[in-house]
Specification:
alpha/beta, Rossmann fold, UDP-galactose 4-epimerase, domain 1, 2 domains, seven-stranded parallel β-sheet, 12 helices, 41% helix, binds uridine-5'-diphosphate
């Protein structure tokens, strides 16, 4: 298939782009490079454009003529969404509406959408299956939930075929050793812990230890980015016009913030200082997947089931490229 990947230069988007290409698909990245990296796209075609730019988007769809779109482009920080909800509603909701309408005009009828476990929010059922209540508790989560409904309505009225993939916490580095997580500013737990390990930060701030969890810190289900990519590859094979499906992508095991720090300490081989501070507004206490639907319906199975193994892959990337893609560019220039 020919696939246009919005956000294809980002962490998850570029990993999926490479997996698609390695498995015989043609994949083109559409990315505004505000957070993504040109280097992450490798020798695939990159169209530099914003999802808010109707003309650029329509032109990309006209020229690429994709069979499907994978929509990764989004703003994804819970804390930032609490501080600047307007940006999140504009980029995630208005941007996606723009994309859906351009796809309708171009008659592209298959969409794989990056949704999130954050839409379950404060849902009391943990682990959660796809039918658990969606009690989104941050602007970020609410934008993703609204887009899920928008996509369903486009399916009902215009025949758009969709697969909603609700990612739990994407983590780790792809097995090729040449790519990994690199956000600026970094807000995600594992890269921040590893930045402390590398001396780039003094300590990790742990956001709250008074949650109703065994050690009081938040619990998340960390899913390796290669396992996420595998799920996209399966999804592209079953997404058909006029039909829709929803799948959780997680391991089914949760780890607390303190357990993640311990896993990183064992990967690095040294202690990593941290300090408990106030809760971060918008954080859900515990998000753990029940991944049985994707396992039974699509035959998906995570390769990485232990947080230590995931942390190890992330550490390999950060150790080799301490400044992320900037380190890569410096190394290439020195050759
Ligand atoms: N977290 C933390 N300190 C940080 C960053 C994150 O304690 O500096 C916690 C955060 O409260 C959440 C978990 O780590 O419980 C994962 O956060 P992240 O931002 O990586 O992903 P999210 O779950 O928000 O999508």
């Amino acid at each position: 298939m020919k696939v246009l990947c919005t956000g294809g230069a980002g962490y998850v988007g570029s990993t999926c782009l490479r997996w698609l290409r390695a498995n015989g698909h043609e994949a083109v990245a559409y990315d505004n490079l505000s957070l993504g990296h040109r280097e992450a796209v490798g020798d695939a075609t990159l169209i530099v454009g914003d999802i808010s730019d109707t003309e650029a988007l329509s032109e990309a769809l006209r020229s690429v003529k994709p069979d499907a779109v994978m929509h990764f482009a989004a703003s994804t920080s819970v804390g930032e969404s609490v501080d600047d909800p307007e940006h999140y509603y504009r980029n995630n909701i208005a941007g996606t509406l723009n994309l859906l309408s351009a796809m309708r005009t171009a008659k592209v009828q298959r969409l794989i959408f990056s949704s999130t476990c954050a839409t379950y929010g404060e849902s009391p059922i943990v682990p959660m299956n796809e039918d658990a209540p969606q009690e989104a508790c941050s602007p970020y989560a609410r934008t993703k939930l609204a887009v899920e409904w928008m996509i369903r309505d486009f399916c009902g009225a215009y025949g758009l075929g969709f697969t909603l993939l609700r990612y739990f916490n994407a983590a780790g580095a792809p097995s090729d050793g040449e790519h990994g997580e690199d956000h600026d500013p970094e807000t995600h737990l594992i890269p921040l812990v590893l930045q402390v390990a590398m001396g780039q930060r003094e300590k990790l701030l742990v956001f709250g230890n008074d949650y109703p969890t065994p050690d009081g810190t938040c619990i998340r289900d960390y899913i390796h980015v290669d396992d996420l990519a595998q799920a996209h590859l399966l999804a592209i094979g079953v997404t058909e016009p006029g039909r829709g499906a929803v799948y959780n992508i997680g391991t089914g095991t949760g780890n607390s913030v303190l357990e993640v720090i311990a896993a990183c300490e064992s990967a690095v081989g040294s202690r990593i200082p941290y300090e408990i501070v106030d809760r971060r507004p918008g954080d859900a206490p515990a998000l753990v997947a029940d991944p049985n639907r994707i396992m039974s319906k699509l035959g998906w199975k995570p390769h990485f089931t232990e947080i230590q193994a995931i942390a190890q892959t992330a550490w390999q990337w950060h150790k080799r490229y301490p400044q992320g893609y900037r380190s890569k560019e410096t190394k290439l220039a020195a050759r």
